[in-house]
Design goal:
Number of domains: 2
CATH topology of the largest domain: Rossmann fold
Strand order of the largest sheet: 9-8-7-10-11-12
Structural class: alpha/beta
Largest sheet: 6 strands, parallel
């Protein structure tokens, strides 16, 4: 949603954003944006209704062509009678809650178009909500890439990196296990950078101690830019796994990494395989042996994979991508 707002504004569209309050200090970010942002900090029950009331008044006073909703929950209380075209994004996790099936269906039926972030997410939605096949839909991969000069830095501090929220399904623990095998059986010692924050941090640090990887793994402060990590790493690795109520709908960081020339190693879980092309390796989910082999193989053909990464990332150039969203309906 941030990328849609920023790039729509840069292409001379009038953009207004209605957002929940941020847990982080957001005024600096808001002040730098070239469009209006209204934040709502009330408790959840009141927030949705206050935001809706604001939106209704705003729409009466302003001419709006398209409204983008970040999920079905944002669309739920919205009137279905307005003539303004409504586009709702579908990411993956939010369509797993079958207990909310009727709420989700009633909400998405108000949309003129649903944009799925991957083929996987679309198929999963159709499986869970068969009636949705009647609603107009498109697949738009949600990665916006600025042009990156090649050969940024030939001296890399890290062999591997993962830029992602620290959740179990991201598979950081599998990378640790692979690194331990590479060191103990192949005498290959790799350096690994982890950028992100989340509930798995404590457990991952304990696992690093257990596997004696303290000198090989760096947990990077989540305030450090992902750009800095990509520039100083050789391969982006994210062997995602499927959890009962959590899936990887796409994998934006794989595309971002590719734009810096980083090949990617991913699993076949969820929509993750759709976030790479021939610039990386897809392994079987939860398969440490394959992960070890893929790390060895990708470094053997590193230059070829790296060249393909730049080419793959060009498909997500921000100017092309915003046109996909704005011309979707």
């Amino acid at each position: 949603m941030t990328n849609i707002a920023q790039h729509a504004s840069r292409t001379r569209n009038k953009v207004t954003v209605l957002s929940d309050g941020s847990k982080l200090f957001s005024s600096d970010f808001d002040n730098k944006c070239k469009f209006d942002i209204y934040r709502f900090d009330q408790i959840k029950f009141l927030r949705k209704r206050i935001k809706l009331s604001f939106a209704q008044n705003f729409l009466k006073k302003n001419k709006i062509d398209i409204i983008f909703f970040d999920s079905w929950k944002s669309l739920e209380l919205f009137s279905s009678t307005t003539d303004i075209r409504k586009i709702c994004l579908a990411h993956g996790n939010e369509i797993l809650k079958l207990s909310d099936k009727n709420r989700i269906l009633n909400s998405l039926n108000k949309a003129d178009l649903i944009i799925y972030n991957s083929q996987f997410t679309r198929n999963k939605t159709f499986k869970n909500f068969k009636i949705l096949k009647k609603i107009n839909h498109k697949i738009v991969y949600p990665a916006f890439i600025k042009k990156i000069p090649k050969n940024i830095n030939n001296k890399k501090k890290y062999d591997l990196c993962t830029v992602a929220r620290l959740e179990y399904r991201k598979g950081h623990h599998l990378v640790f296990e692979a690194m331990s095998i590479l060191r103990n059986y192949y005498k290959i010692s790799l350096k690994y950078a982890i950028l992100g924050d989340g509930p798995e941090l404590s457990r991952l640090k304990d696992l690093v101690m257990k596997l004696s990887l303290q000198k090989q793994v760096d947990f990077i402060d989540h305030n450090i830019s992902s750009e800095k990590i990509y520039k100083n790493s050789s391969v982006h690795i994210m062997p995602t796994i499927t959890a009962p109520e959590s899936i990887e709908g796409f994998g934006i960081s794989n595309v971002e990494a590719a734009s810096y020339g980083l090949p990617c190693i991913v699993s076949n879980s969820g929509g993750t395989p759709e976030s790479i092309g021939n610039n990386g390796i897809i392994i079987k989910e939860n398969d440490t042996k394959q992960l070890v082999k893929s790390i060895i193989d990708i470094f053997k053909k590193y230059k070829s994979y790296s060249r393909k990464s730049y080419l793959f990332a060009n498909n997500f150039e921000s100017g092309k991508k915003i046109k996909e969203y704005l011309n979707a309906i």
